[in-house]
Specification:
With 371 residues, the protein is an all-alpha fold. It has 13 helices and two strands, in the order H-H-H-E-E-H-H-H-H-H-H-H-H-H-H. The protein has one domain. A hairpin with a 2-residue loop joins strand 1 and strand 2. Helix 5 packs parallel to helix 12.
Length: 371
């Protein structure tokens, strides 16, 4: 094999890791500024203009902060757990296409690291591994609160992973492929979010639960578990957990943009391939703001209701949406009638309204004391 191919892979991997690490640092600034604006506060504004140097100041503080390791922890696992959490958040992005390709020094450079035929399956496999770091962090800390946080995280992952998988199935059916590049190309005429808005909504809710973001932040509920699974961590090991969380936020927004919002597609992207990453990251910034907005708006869901919502509402709704999508596409191909295609969003929204009606009835019963 040509050594230049290895060099290209190494350079692209290094650049992607650098983008994610820089994105993590400035996502913390973006979140703090957005939350401040929503809550009519100022936010970070001291370190540099508009507080732009605040992430650097935080990084320097955490690097030089003393790291404490409690005496009775399971030391090897305790040290490895943050690494096991961070690594999946980085390698998830390897199969996400940032664009098509461009010529440099007479060589065609693709704007992705790996073109995997089963890219969706790869993403689901790696995303499932990420929870091990959190569970092992809770167990190895030898702390009851941390252990409860780890158990909550694994239960939450099992509950919402099935829903997430069915959301992937919806995108696979519409794109007729498990290859992410094929799925993006299938959206040249119409983004999948227009054809299946409920599927996109379900995917977004499931990813909020997967990355433990509010209102699904039960594994690190400060009021109940004193920060949960990372209660015993400090210094850079503590920072690695938050690096993983914010990097996963960026990556899942990239995946959602790829599956439902046309990925890198946009005006003139055929003529100027380097516009592809610009369009993708613009979509990611909007989706990240929606995540931040939800954190600023919704209170944390009680644990039993969070589990009930996942198993009794979201999973059946995701199953119904996948069935409606498959049936609509099959009938449209069979009878050569596009009306069947447009029945997909109509019937999906009707299913969503039924789910909302069930939630409303359940909340009414609880408010009147009938369990």
């Amino acid at each position: 094999m040509d050594w230049t191919i290895w060099l290209e892979w190494v350079l692209k991997g290094f650049i992607l890791c650098l983008i994610l690490l820089t994105g993590f640092a400035y996502l913390t600034w973006y979140e703090r500024r957005a939350l401040a604006r929503i809550q009519i506060r100022v936010g970070p504004n001291r370190a540099g203009p508009q507080g732009l140097l605040q992430p650097i100041a935080d990084a320097v503080k955490l690097i030089f902060k003393e790291e404490l390791t409690p005496a009775r922890v399971y030391k090897v696992v305790f040290i490895l757990a943050p690494v096991l959490t961070v690594v999946p958040s980085l390698i998830l992005a390897a199969v996400i296409p940032l664009g098509t390709s461009f010529n440099l020094f007479g060589r065609e450079i693709t704007l992705f690291i790996a073109d995997v035929n089963v890219g969706v399956l790869y993403i689901m496999s790696i995303a499932s591994i990420a929870v091990y770091g959190i569970v092992l962090a809770g167990w190895s800390s030898n702390n009851k609160y941390a252990m409860l946080g780890g158990i909550r995280s694994s239960a939450q992952m099992i509950s919402y992973e099935l829903t997430l998988g069915l959301s992937f199935v919806t995108a696979i059916i519409m794109g007729n492929s498990m290859n992410l590049i094929d799925i993006v190309n299938a959206q040249k005429d119409l983004w999948f979010v227009a054809l299946q808005p409920v599927g996109a909504l379900i995917f977004w809710i499931a990813t909020l639960a997967e990355v433990n973001r509010a209102p699904f932040d039960m594994p690190d509920a400060e009021q109940e578990l004193t920060a949960g699974f990372h209660a015993e961590y400090s210094g850079m090991k503590f920072a690695l957990f938050f690096m993983a969380e914010y990097q996963k936020m960026i990556v899942v927004c990239m995946i959602m943009a790829t599956l439902f919002f046309g990925g890198y597609l946009g005006p003139f992207v055929d003529k100027f391939p380097l516009l592809g990453p610009v369009y993708l990251f613009a979509k990611v910034i909007v989706l990240l703001f929606l995540m931040i907005w939800v954190r600023a708006t919704w209170p944390r869901i009680r644990y039993d209701r969070l589990m009930s919502f996942g198993w009794k509402i979201l999973l059946p709704l995701a199953l119904a949406v996948a069935f409606i999508t498959a049936t609509g596409i099959l009938l449209a191909d069979l009878y050569k009638n596009q009306l069947y295609m447009w029945s997909i969003p109509v019937l999906s929204i009707a299913s969503l309204l039924v789910a909302v009606a069930f939630i409303y009835r359940d909340l009414r019963r609880k408010s009147h004391g009938r369990i």
